[in-house]
Amino acid sequence: MSTTLTVASYNMRKAVGLDRRRDPHRILHVLEEIGADVVALQEADRRTGGRASAVPHELWEGHSPYRPLPLGVKNRRMLDRLPKVSARVDDWLKVDTRNIGWHGNAILVKSHVGVLDVAAIELPTLEPRGAVLAELLVHDRPIRIVGLHLDLSGLWRRRQMRAILECIDQRPQPMPTVLMGDTNEWRSAAGCLKELDGGYRIAPTGPSFHARRPIAVLDRIMIDNALPIEAAGVHHSERARIASDHLPIWARVRL
Question: What is the pLDDT of residue 189?
Fold first, then answer.
């Protein structure tokens, strides 16, 4: 019997909207509107000071159906509320308990999604960049999610995509994989996307940037050929059009 999974990607711009207000509640409302099972966030943490989560932890814990996976934050309360978290997670968790991501990348899951393992991916770059990986269990079926935010430089984007694919190849267990995030790639079939080399299809979501008048497909969901795509799109809502300079994108796959 087949089952479906809805994934989404959202560059939330540190919760600062086009009205220049930082409004974490608005970000939570947008995520609830989308209703995805798994979400990859970009710019989830602030860039200054302690790089705290742009949405305070108490809001995630008390006002959201999502829980951020412990990607770069040592937070025992959060770990205890996650199902089936690998014991190896503690090996590399950071001391700072305020952020939720790795270089601003974070992965959110709903309560019915099991967590097998998580990892931070170091990327080659001149500026701070990284990607995050989660191996999940949905209705007893494994799936790997990679959240990414690639460089503004085309040369570095290609190197970063190669590093991500190499990391996936080195994982101990094979499983279907979804890559999603802000690629910063303006071209539709060139640059870093050529590194996918036919192993993934790009979900036909449509343009998501700029939120006020979307013309560019910078945000992408790249889906393993083993996973049929049932539907995909950009989330256009009144809140989403002002909450960030990017609109969220989503895709539904059959497992």
Answer: 81
